Amino acid sequence: MKRIKKKRFWASCFCFMAFFFLLITFQVVVELGRSEQLTSKNSVSQNNAFREDEFQKYPPLFFKRPKLDHSAGKKLHRGTYPILLWWSPLTGESGRQAQCGEDVCFFTINRTYQHNPMTKAFLFYGTDFSIHSLPLPRAGYHDWALFHEESPKNNYKLFQPPAITLFNHTATFSRHSHLPLTTQYLESIEALYTLRYTVSLQKKNSLRKRLAPLVYVQSDCDPPSDRDSYIKELMAHIEIDSYGACLHNRDLPDHLRNPSSMDSDSFYKILARYKFILAFENSVCGDYITEKLWRPLKLGVVPVYYGAPTIQDWLPSNKSAILVTDFPHPKDLAQYIKGLDADDREYVAYLEWKLKGDISNRQLLAVIKERTWGVQDIMKDNYIDAFECMVCTRVWENIKRQAKVSINTSLHWDLLSL
């Protein structure tokens, strides 16, 4: 009997202690919730970079994507949004709030925001990037983002490892960028398929009586790729019509001598009459590809290409361009082109992909289909807008990730302290 009473006593004690523990735990959770709400309210009131009076300084909100509904619009004025500061001005806008999917960011060129606690990223335009003018000291929560669509010739320092590794987000010609701009000079796959400018082989052969087989148009002379030296040697072995300032030997019509006419139909029609176009880039760099390649492919002319070592990854088919690097000497290249010029069947083999409308390069097709920006396409953002939104989204991902880690860490230590 005494044993039973003793067991009942200890059972009662255990139940009481369990109830007491649950009661204390409940109170702790309630207090944590109140404290979190209070902290959140204080954080908004103290750190809000865009109070109502601040919004009056800037023009109406601009959204790159469809506008938010009325209730969401109110939320814009109540929330806090990261500031993305163009340190090397590209857009020229003093202040603009933008919607990127579900994320909102404020873009500005106003350097007074450098030390604002809501400034999360600095955006740099590569052409104007200078190591002598940087937003230093760099805080641990400051991201740096680079937009540079040009070749290393434009700013060679950026492509050295100590420089390029400074950036958390990049948009360059390299396929390894966070936002690759490799196809920035190709508006669409349809532009490659079009036969709008294509001149028949019969007519090209007829025009060969007064035109050279090769054409060269370039006014940026003696660039890092040293293309002019190669072409000068090539001229000793095959006839080349050169319309530009570099190695000039043939004049364009008066109305086409202005550089702005290089994208006109009249200029395209002159180039389309030739069998081959010398497409030499100003820099030899992986994935750096310009209109020098895409233009002849669009016109139905075979490009003789020198530039990106990775060019085969981007050609519409395995036989759509003649690669200079396949030949040990300009004389060997000249002999090969002469052979194609004299053999219609072999020449047409380089144009079959276009005439049949068959692009076999799946990577090229996928990249054009999946890119988030457009070229001369009013239905899509341009690549600058896409770059801004890419940085905005990635900044928000970091903010959300850090907030989640902070909450989990706080709860962990609170539970350990019980």
From TrEMBL:
Main site of residence? endoplasmic reticulum
Pathway annotation: Protein modification; protein glycosylation
Start and end residues of each Fucosyltransferase C-terminal domain: 213-400
Q: Name one GO molecular function term.
A: peptide-O-fucosyltransferase activity
- The lineage's top-level taxon is Eukaryota
Q: Where is the Fucosyltransferase N-terminal domain?
A: 83-180
User: InterPro entries, alphabetically?
Assistant: Alpha-1_3-FUT_met, Glyco_tran_10_C, Glyco_tran_10_N, Glyco_trans_10, GT10-like_C_sf
| EC identifiers of the protein | 2.4.1.-
Q: List the catalytic activities from the record.
A: L-threonyl-[protein] + GDP-beta-L-fucose = 3-O-(alpha-L-fucosyl)-L-threonyl-[protein] + GDP + H(+); L-seryl-[protein] + GDP-beta-L-fucose = 3-O-(alpha-L-fucosyl)-L-seryl-[protein] + GDP + H(+)
Localization annotation: Endoplasmic reticulum membrane
Keywords, in A-Z order: Glycoprotein, Glycosyltransferase, Membrane, Signal-anchor, Transferase, Transmembrane, Transmembrane helix
Tell me the Gene Ontology biological-process terms attached to this UniProt entry.
positive regulation of protein secretion
Q: How does it sit in the membrane?
A: Single-pass type II membrane protein
Please provide, in alphabetical order, the Gene Ontology terms of the cellular component aspect for this entry: endoplasmic reticulum membrane; Golgi membrane; nucleoplasm
Keyword Cell membrane assigned: no
Family under the similarity heading: Belongs to the glycosyltransferase 10 family.
- Protein name per UniProt: Fucosyltransferase
Species: Laticauda laticaudata (Blue-ringed sea krait)
- The gene behind this protein is FUT10
